[in-house]
Amino acid sequence: MTEIPEHLLKRSQERRAAIGGEASPSSEPASAASDDSPSDAPATSPAVPAAAAAAVAEPVAPPPAPVRPEVAAALRRRKIPYWAMPVLAGLPLWAYVYQATLEPPPADESSPIVLGEAVYAGCAGCHGDAGEGVSAPALDGVLATWPDYRDHMMWVRLGDPGWPGTTYGATNKPKSVGMPAHAALTDAELAQVVLYERTAFGGLDPTSEEYLTLVEIAEGKKTFAEAGLGPVSTAAGVDPAKLTAG
């Protein structure tokens, strides 16, 4: 039987000690020989189990610090929803559009009413900017004085000098104020200023036939001669030829 060399036995014992934690006793004669002679193998310390080593090496986490009251309140507070940001960003634009809807639309500078107001600027010195009357009668009763727009137009054209008789209008007011004639006004300008006075100071209905006819004359679609004389002018004896004067 072949004898195992002593250095191989030592190496085997070292490996077993490293794996199992203890050296296997030798039952061969070489073991006895190793008792008689001093061994050169270093002493092997018992191995520490892997689970115990891991438990010792793992640090223990400290307990979490208590949350401060203000931080806890902030965490509990409801957050702004994601859709609120675009809504807030669009509020200035919405406010601008809303404000624009509250303002009246700009007046059309070519409308008969606006043009009539410009013509009336030459009358405001006597009748007042708001028709309240300054050195001439107020115009708040213009529809009662002139129920027919054609008589009103003829009065503005002729004035005191050209109007027959000593009174004027349906209420027979005395001609004592000195209403000047405006013979230089065209049919369109005459209709514009009369339309403005009857609408702004008399509250003329903009849907009435009279309003629409005045607009036609003011826009040059119809002449004063085509409209004809009114009943008060006819009764006062106004010359029909004055319908074409201007």
Structure in words:
- The chain has 246 residues and is mainly alpha-helical.
- It has a domain at 112-244: Orthogonal Bundle (Cytochrome Bc1 Complex, Chain D, domain 2), CATH 1.10.760.
- The chain is 50% helix and 2% strand.
- It has 13 helices and 2 strands; from the N terminus they run αααααααααββαααα.
- It has helices at 6-20, 29-36, 50-57, 69-76, 84-102, 112-120, 124-127, 142-145, 149-162, 187-200, 209-218, 224-227, 231-236; strands at residues 167-168, 173-174.
- The chain has a two-stranded antiparallel sheet with strand order 1-2.
- α6 crosses α10 (187-200) and α9 crosses α10.
- The longest helix is centred in the middle third of the chain and has 19 residues, at 84-102.
- It is rod-shaped and about 165 Å long.
Considering the chains and any ligands shown, give keywords for the structure.
Cytochrome Bc1 Complex, Chain D, domain 2, two-stranded antiparallel ribbon, 246 residues, mainly alpha, rod-shaped
In brief, what are we looking at here?
The chain is mostly helical. It has 13 helices and 2 strands; from the N terminus they run αααααααααββαααα.
The strand line-up of the biggest sheet is 1-2
The level 1 CATH classification of one domain is Mainly Alpha
> Structural class of the secondary structure composition?
mainly alpha
Tally the beta strands: 2
Q: How does the overall form come out from the CA principal axes?
A: rod-shaped
Strand content: under 5%
Q: What name does CATH use for the topology of one domain?
A: Cytochrome Bc1 Complex, Chain D, domain 2
Low-confidence stretches: 22-38
Helix tally equals: 13
**Main beta-sheet annotation:** 2 strands, antiparallel
Give the name of the CATH architecture of one domain: Orthogonal Bundle
**Helix and strand element order:** HHHHHHHHHEEHHHH
